Amino acid sequence: MAKNLLEQLKAMTVVVADTGDIEAIEKFMPRDATTNPSLITAAAQMPQYQGIVDDTLKGARATLGAGADVAHVVDLAFDRLAVSFGLKILEIIPGRVSTEVDARLSFDTDATITKGRDLIAQYEAAGVSKDRVLIKIAATWEGIQAAAVLEKEGIHCNLTLLFGLHQAIACAENGITLISPFVGRILDWYKKDTGRDSYAPAEDPGVVSVTEIYNYYKKFGYKTEVMGASFRNVGEITELAGSDLLTIAPSLLAELQATEGELPRKLDANKAATMTIEKLSIDKATFDSMHAANRMATDKLAEGIDGFAKALVSLEELLAARLASLEA
C-alpha cells in the first residue's frame, strides 16, 4: 500500500504542528508543536477552548484577589495564557512546545531574558521539564543575545521571524537550539516586489533561503536545528524534505496526508558537508550591515514583529471583555 506524503515526510523530518488548535494536534499527532501570538489569539476565540481562557482568567483573579483592578488581572492572565495552551498541548505530543516571548520586547535584551525565565518558571511550576519547552524569540540582534544567555542557563530557544543568512549564522554562533526561517513570508515579499504570480517550488525564494541555511549549518557542523516555517503550499514543504524539522499548519498537514506519491529527500547533511561554502563570522556591525542590505529581511522582520504585537493587543482586549463577562 502506497504511503501518503505526510508519512514519508515523517520518516526523514520531524513534523511539527504550527497551531494553537488542540484538536488539530490530536488529529495529526506531530512530535512537537509551535504557537505564536496570532495562533494563540485565534485559538482563544474558538468556543471549544473557552474553558482554557476562563480558567486562566479565574486563576489570575484568585492570585491577585477580589480587590485587584481588571487591568492587573488581565495582565496576569495574558502572561499565563500561552503557557496554559502549551500545557494542554504537552498532554498530547511526546516532544516540545514553543511558547513565544512578547513581541513588543524584541529589541530589549534584558526584558526578553526576564520573560523567558518567567515562562520556563511557569512550566516548571506546573511540573513540566524545561527540556520540553522552547522559548520563542524574534531573531533581532537583541533577541539573539538574549537567547544566548538563556541557552547558557539550560533554557532552549527557538528564534523566529528569521529571513536571512545573517540571522541564521548569528543564531548558530550563539549556540541557539533551533531556528524557524519563514518560507512563505519570503515568497510573499518576492511576489509583491517582482509582480510575479508564482514560482516553481525549487525556485521559490523561501525554499532557496532555507536550503542555503541548512547547507551552511551542515557544512560547518553547527548543532542548531533548522525548522522551516510559514508555508504557503505543499510544494514548498516537499522541496525541503530532509530538513531537521518543518512546522506545518493543519490545512497543509491534511493535504500532505491526503496525497500519495514518491517523496524524495531534498536536503541531505552528507551532501552539504562536501559543498564549497564560504564561512562567515557575524558580529553586530556585520549583522546590521547585512540586514540593512537585505530589503526583504528588513521589511519582513519589522512587519512580523508589528503583526505579532497587534495580535497581542487584540488578545489583551479579548481577555478584558471575557473577564467583564465572567464577573458581570
Please provide a written account of the structure:
By secondary structure, this protein is of the alpha/beta class. 56% of the residues lie in helices and 11% in strands. The chain contains 15 helices and eight strands. It has an eight-stranded parallel barrel with strand order 1-2-3-4-5-6-7-8, surrounded by eight helices. β4, α7 and β5 form a beta-alpha-beta unit. The chain is globular, with a radius of gyration of 20 Å.
Summarize the topology.
Blueprint lengths: L4 H6 L3 E5 L3 H7 L3 E3 L2 H8 L5 H15 L5 H21 L6 E4 L8 H17 L7 E6 L2 H12 L4 E6 L2 H9 L4 E4 L1 H12 L10 H15 L5 E4 L5 H5 L6 E4 L1 H9 L10 H5 L10 H10 L1 H33 L1
Parallel strand pairs: 1-2, 1-8, 2-3, 3-4, 4-5, 5-6, 6-7, 7-8
Structure summarized in a few sentences:
This protein is α/β, with parallel strands linked by helices and 328 residues long. Helices cover 56% and strands 11% of the residues. It has one domain (5-327): TIM Barrel.
Brief descriptors of the model:
single chain, 56% helix, 15 helices, TIM Barrel, alpha/beta
Figure out the total of helices.
15
CATH architecture: Alpha-Beta Barrel
Structural class: alpha/beta
What's the alpha carbon Rg, rounded to whole Å? 20 Å
Percentage of residues in strands: 5-15%
What is the CATH fold-level name?
TIM Barrel
- Name the shape in a single word: globular
- CATH domain class: Alpha Beta
Tally the beta strands: 8
The neighbouring-strand order within the major sheet is 1-2-3-4-5-6-7-8
Distance between the termini: 58 Å
Sheet having the most strands: 8 strands, parallel, barrel
